[in-house]
Amino acid sequence: MFSPISEAIVMFSVPAVYWHLLWVMTAGGATARARIVMSAFVILWTAIAYAHIRYGFGVGLIGESPAVPAVVLCVVALLAYLLRDIVLGDGVSQRLLIALQLFRPIGLVFVLENARGTLPWTFAQPAGWGDLVAGIVAAGVLIRYWDQTIPARAVVLVAVVGLLDFTSAFFFGFTSAASPLQLFAFDNPNRVIEYPLGLIPVFLVPYAVAAHVLSLAQLARDRRAAR
Length: 227
Known about the structure:
Helix content: over 70%
Oligomer: single chain
Number of strands: 0
């Protein structure tokens, strides 16, 4: 059973990122209708994710495979790209988009659970400390360019570090979970998909990836405008 501290951190972060999305859309000048539709989608997504992780809703349909979060991640990243103009509106500051990555150190709950013996070292240590590094890089960029326009190279740096961390976490998460492709942690299979930590790969990680996608989309916009 996971720690109540981990549950509190995860459950606080879910509504926090929802409000961040509304903040981004409002700052970009998105219409009220767009904000309402996006809010309805995120609330529905949250409810389904919570019901699946907490009560096993839909397990008979999609199973409990550790590949489920990866599929969700790809779908959300694609939606973020396709809906980029709706979400970004007339344009959003990179500072606001990068700020979402400041939530990344919540991944240290993996390290906490590893110390308690509920998660394997193979997944928890690289995932937890990788999230911390991603958050520090994002914070460093925001501080370094506090009163300046954030340059393209810094935007790309935040995205590359953040996406590499997620790639590592999904690889070790998948290969340390009980499945035909398990390579590690046979004595303590990864159970990160269980409640409440399951909300991180199913909800919080896809949103952070979507923020990276939107940040790069805004960067491409700015470059086109400069030309």
